[in-house]
Every structure is written in structure tokens, then in C-alpha cells.
Amino acid sequence: MFTNADIAELRAFRRELHLWPELSGAEEDTARRVVAFMEPTRPDRVLTGLGGTGVALVYDSGRAGPTLMIRAELDALPIEEKGTHDHRSRVAGRGHLCGHDGHMTMLCAVGRVLARQRPARGRAVLLFQPAEETGQGAAAVLADPTFAAIAPDMALSLHNMPGVPFGHVGLDEGPANCASCGLEIRLEGRTAHASMPETGLSPMRALVRLMPELTALGAGGALEPGFRMVTVTHAGMGEPAFGIAPGSARLMATLRCLEDDDMAALRAEAEALVHEVAAQEGLEVAMSYHDDFSACRNAPEAVAVLRRACVGAGVPVSALPPMRGSEDFGRFGQDRPAAMFLLGAGEERAQLHNPDYDFPDDLIPVGAGIFVRAIRDVLG
Predict the structure, then answer these.
(1) What is the per-residue pLDDT for 335?
(2) CA–CA distances in Å: residue 250 to residues 134, 185, 219, 278, 284
(3) Alpha-carbon torsion 292, 298, 299, 305, what sign?
(4) For residue 370, what are the β-bridge partners?
């Protein structure tokens, strides 16, 4: 399926992407690199600027049939990479520490196969999506009027997963990724001289109360119906000075649930708690939500396609619990069958978002091979 030359060139391209990471919504150079690298595959249509910086490559049979979309992500993370490999990030404070460089390269590998043999019917669409890490990219692509011209009948994707044996697939129907959102809380009181704190109104007691009480609303546990988790991610108050008693505070927390319906209830409980504590302390309060991810559910018909592809590729496949982490791919499944599988990156590999994580190049032909078989199964 892939020649030695393919593997060498794909490996080199993955490392090039790793060298030059770009953050969500700012992936212009990454998108240009993908388009240039894929030009020799002669896609029948190239769409750029989808949802901002997204790219879609269309390989059309010229015959009637369904449209199957495979999705990868363009964006990197605002984390300083601490790996020691030669291809570590050359951009300060940014790194491909989630493996999106590898996911993109897998789609590029699929494009090479489609260049040699188009689908027998319908269309295969390779989508390189922006801004997955913020939860904004899939929604932006879906809202882009250009997307209607390539709207798929089915959508597939993957995520590499450290801690799972290398090359093993986790796949099941139902929940695949949790819903999550970021809750930002701002508390306002009144500053005072540090020698006379009684003349001000400090948010300290409210801040100290809210951190454990918010966390208690979602203690985590097993990934089963009713699962929810609240994680405090940032807290701060006042000015970095010794002469001023604080008058304001900022608290950030991530709310996480297995299902979208549970998220609505958790939001309501968190908001009620914040209002109650602020009122008791005499503080003004403002709340806002960020990085809003819907839950991702795997449709049975899309799972069946992926399972057959794994069997055909000789890849071990078994059920795994859903990811606690979130993925905005779930939005593509709201109007069509969609499924995401987890592809083992090795049991000893650093975890996703760790500063020393690096995608394993040997996984490229494994993931790409599964996608190629899925395309052949659906489109011939």
C-alpha cells in the first residue's frame, strides 16, 4: 500500500510539521504546507480557508455515490516542548504535543493512495480542520457556506492514545469523548491598604470556598452514565504587591460530562453555587464560558465501517472506555453517522499534552491503512 519512499517522505513531512507548530485559528503556514505537500496527489478539488484556515482535498470518482470524509487537526498547543529529539519545536512556547502532526500526515498518506486509484464511486474528502484544541474549529467549518459543497454522508477520524499498546485500536458504539467547557469566574469587591484590610472587600474567602466546592460538584470516577468532573485550572486575586489588600479575583475551571444533557445540569449547579457564595461575601460576580466541546458519540454504522477496516488491515481492535478528554469532532456527528477510534501509541510513551510527548512515526501507515480500507469498503 505504501512504498519505502512514501514512508520516508511522510516521516520527513511529519517532522517538518512538528518543527513549526501553530496555535488554534492561526494555522496559515501549516495549511499551506499541507496543500503544497499534497499537490502531487492531484486532488479533484482543493478548498482552503474553511472555517478560517481549514483545508479540504476532494478525490472524486466522477460517479454517483456517497461522500466519505476523514478528518485530522491542524493546530498545536501553547506548551513549551521539552523533548530532546532533533525535530523538536523551533517556536517558543508552542508544540505539537497532542499528535496532530501525525494525524495530518496519516491523511496525507491516504491521499497518496487515492492519487494512484480514485474511489470507484462517490467522493473521498480529506479535511484538515483548524482550532480543534479550543473547540471552535469544527463549528466554524460546519458554519462555512463552502462546506455545503462537500458535506459528507459519513465522517471518520482517530486520535492517537499513549498508554494503549502500539497499533491496537479502541473502538465502540456510543460515547467516545466527553463534553467539556471552561467556566471563567470574576469576583469583584474593593481594594484597601494592606494595613487596613477591614476597609475593603476581599474576595479571598469566596475564592477559597469556591475551589473545593466547585470540584465537589463533579468528582470524576468511572466513565459511565452520569460521569462528571470539575477541575480547577487557574486561580488568582489582587495585585502582585504587598501594600494592597485584594479587591478582585479570577477563577477558571473545566466542567466535564459524558453526555451533553448532563452538562446543562452541571452548568446550572455551578452557576448557582457561584452566585450563592458571591452573595454571601457581598461580591459582584460575572461568569463566561470558553472552549465549549460537545460530547462525541460513535454511530453504529460508522463503527461497523471502521471495525471491518481494522479486521481487514490485521489491526487488533477491542472496546475501550471513552476518552475523558474532549474532541470537537463530535459536531460532525450531529447530522450524519460519524465515529472516532483510538489508536495505541505505546504503553511507555509520554501522555498527550505532556511537554516531552512526540508522535511515533511508525504509527503513520497503521492509521492511514485503516482509513484507506474504510474508503474502499464504502466507496470501492
Answers:
(1) 93
(2) 20, 6, 22, 13, 12
(3) positive
(4) none
Rounded to an integer, what distance in angstroms lies between the CA atom of residue 176 and that of residue 15?
A: 29
Quote the CA–CA distance of 58 and 244 in Å, as a whole number: 60
pLDDT in tens, 209-231: 999 999 999 989 988 999 999 99
Indicate which CATH number applies to the domain containing 314: 3.40.630.10
Q: Per-residue pLDDT averaged across 292-297, rounded?
A: 93
- Overall average pLDDT of the 334-352 stretch: 96
Number of domains in the chain: 2
What is the model's pLDDT at position 83? 86
- pTM value is 0.91
Residue 320's pLDDT is what?
A: 85
Q: Please report how the helices 28-38 and 4-19 are oriented relative to each other, as an axis angle in degrees rounded to 10.
A: 170
- Average pLDDT over every residue of 239-253: 97
Range of the structural domain that residue 184 is part of:
179-293
Contact 263/210 with Cβ under 8 angstroms? Answer: no
Cα separation, 111 vs 9, whole angstroms: 13
C-alpha triplet 20, 323, 21: angle, nearest 5°: 5
- Closest listed residue to residue 336, CA positions, set 76, 107, 156: 156
- Same domain flag for 247 and 354: no
Asked if residue 186 and residue 169 are part of one domain, the reply reads no
C-alpha to C-alpha distance for 21 and 29, rounded to whole angstroms? 9
| Element at 292 (helix H, strand E) | strand 284-293
Among candidate residues 259, 293, 327, the one where a domain is terminated: 293
Boundary-marking domain end, from 227, 258, 293: 293
Mean pLDDT of 330-345: 96
**H-type helices in 188-288, by residue range?**
204-216, 260-281
Question: What is the structure's pLDDT at 101?
Answer: 98
